[in-house]
Amino acid sequence: MAAMLPLDSIRLRGAGDRPLQSRLIEGVIAAILESRSPPGTRLPSTRELAEGVDVSRMTVTLVYAELVALGYIESRPRSGFVVADTVPNRRVAVQAPDAPGERVAWEGWLAAPCPRRRVIRKPADWRNHPYPFIFGQADPRLFDLAAWRDCARHALGVRDFGGLTVDLMAQDDPMLIDHICSSTLPRRGIAATPDQVLITVGSQNALYIVMALLATAGRPAAIEEPGYPDFAETLRARGAPMRLVPVDAGGIEVDAIPPGTRIVTITPSHHIPTGATMPMERREALLRRASSDNFLVIEDDYDFEMSYLAPPMPALKSMDDAGRVIYLGSFSKSLFPGLRLGYLVASAPLIEAARALRATILRHPPSQLQRVTAYFLALGHYDAHITRLRAEMARRRAALIEALERTPFRLAGTDREGGTSAARHRQRRPGPAGADAGGADRAGGGVLRTSPRALPLFPAGLRLDRVRPDRAGGRGAGLCSGADAPLPRGGLGSGAISAGCPWTRGD
């Protein structure tokens, strides 16, 4: 008699919010592969499996039918369902090593030691926090998933799918490039041709490519202080001398850029993390300084879509007649972080070199994602999403300010145009000796450390009406007490309020 696949080896796999049918399909496939069952191995009957995993018999019947179509099992007369001869990706036995542990001394092989990274720490369970003020996380309720699915169906249609089967080598999706050149960039005042645009895996990827091409040990680079940590880390990885330039209410202080600087990286639309917007006079001064001192400017147009308090200012790139400004844009921040699509805009010779470098790493970002995004832009869903997001961010900002009026805390941001975060500066009020922001929750002392950091306005399900200072210490002492601490439950209390982001230098 043929062998039987043990019933207890089959279980529902995957997250509990997925359909039972797909979870059971995954479970049966895993049981077949993990047990290396030979062809002809019998599977439990539909009744036995339904009782074993506590699902309906109809669900098991549909699962078996799908597995037959996939080639994992087949139906045989008087034998029921058995493992098929055509099982894809059948596993082979893996020989265990003679001795545990690595035998290669990787420290001697690595070309350079792993760089020390100052990262923005984001707890994995941030959605479970009562006040999830976590930088860079999106509220999925604000995204039109139905529209995105419709665009995905368009992109997977017969006409479009034919294009996906063609190897584009280092080229990008022409529909997305066309929309960026004809609609996205003109709204920022930028005129660009297709040979001046490169699609990237987010703005961070664009920054890395640019720095890999331009940053060297002999070219000092200036970044904002405080500023986005990955700017510093990218320069550190390239071995470029780094100069920290202070930021005030108008962004980077142009007069403080040291002589001899060759590259300046800035976020003029909404400075990270203070939210400061660079005024027109300072933008003009920066471009004059770039021309006279012969340096290049990398403009990360972060958060420009969220200008809901005032109309957004034109991008610095739109004022550049000499080609000195390199522009970084991203769809990941405005749509959802997992998209990982951005774009780089610069003079054609730099884009040509960037395309060649990108081709050695990943050829191009996934064409299917590019086409879905192109449809999302072209069909007007993106504009509707931004309009909806601006209204919600304005509402949350007003609610936050109103709630903080009932506490000892005050925001002191310079975000004149809006944004997805509100900034505040260091201030203290009397507390017990030795108390600090990290220990406020334990000590119950009234310490507000703000250093300056960004307080995101994205938390899902936020109940700002519960933010009140009526409890000192205990479980209600703060939204986030320090960069490495979890978000405590309860009201705002008198503890530290922090976004958990290492904005300051920290060297």
Helix content estimate = 25-40%
Sequence stretches where pLDDT stays below 50 over 5 or more residues: 424-455, 457-507
How would you spell out the order of helices and strands? Answer: HHHEEHHHHEHEHEEEHEEEHHHEHE
Structural class: alpha/beta
Q: Tell me the fraction of residues in β-strands, as a range.
A: 5-15%
Radius of gyration: 27 Å
The N- and C-terminal alpha carbons lie at a distance of 70 Å
Quickly list its features.
disordered C terminus; 14 helices; alpha/beta; elongated
Fold blueprint:
Layout: H1 20-34, H2 46-53, H3 57-70, E1 73-76, E2 80-83, H4 106-109, H5 145-155, H6 158-164, H7 174-184, E3 197-200, H8 203-214, E4 221-225, H9 229-238, E5 242-248, E6 251-252, E7 263-266, H10 280-293, E8 296-300, E9 325-330, E10 342-345, H11 348-361, H12 367-378, H13 381-404, E11 421-424, H14 440-443, E12 453-456
Parallel strand pairs: 4-5, 4-7, 7-8, 8-9
Antiparallel strand pairs: 1-2, 3-10, 5-6, 9-10, 11-12
Helix pairs in contact: 1-3, 2-3, 5-12, 7-12, 8-9
Structural summary, described in words:
It is a single chain. The protein has 507 residues and is of the alpha/beta class. The protein is 32% helix and 10% strand. It has 14 helices and twelve strands. The strands form three sheets. The chain has an eight-stranded mixed beta sheet with strand order 3-10-9-8-7-4-5-6, sandwiched between helices. A two-stranded antiparallel ribbon has the order 1-2. Helix 1 (20-34) packs across helix 3. The N and C termini lie far apart (70 Å).
